[in-house]
Amino acid sequence: MGALHWLILFPYYFFTALTLFLVFSIVSRVTRAGSGANSLALGAIVVSVVLTALPLITGTTYIADYSWPGLVFLLVVSLGLALIDTVLKPSLDLPLDQELEDV
User: What's the total number of domains in the chain?
Assistant: First the structure.
């Protein structure tokens, strides 16, 4: 059971990266930065891994601290950010939108 407990980190990586991608997208949209989708996604993934793994490596948190309420919080925040991004899209169009539509 101890080894399976580490599997909780995978949803944390995913939802943290998703939330950070939306944050980077909104910041890019508001500041009119011409950032591409690949650079935003790469930045979100790298920061997600650091934010999730660094507290475990330094010993400030334990694997038991990563539980379902944190995932629900990340899910709610990512849905809220997706709503904000959708509302901003018609008025603040970016080249990033065309890249994401082509995918």
Answer: 1
| Residue 2 included in any domain | no
pLDDT at residue 34 is higher than 60: yes
Residue 103 lies in a domain: no
| DSSP states of 7-60 | GGHHHHHHHHHHHHHHHHHHHHHHHT----HHHHHHHHHHHHHHHHHHHHHHTS
User: Would the pLDDT of 4 be above 50?
Assistant: yes
pLDDT band at 65 (very low <50, low <70, confident <90, very high): confident
In a domain, 100, yes or no: no
Rounded CA-CA distance 88/66 in Å is: 32
Q: Within a domain: residue 34? A: yes
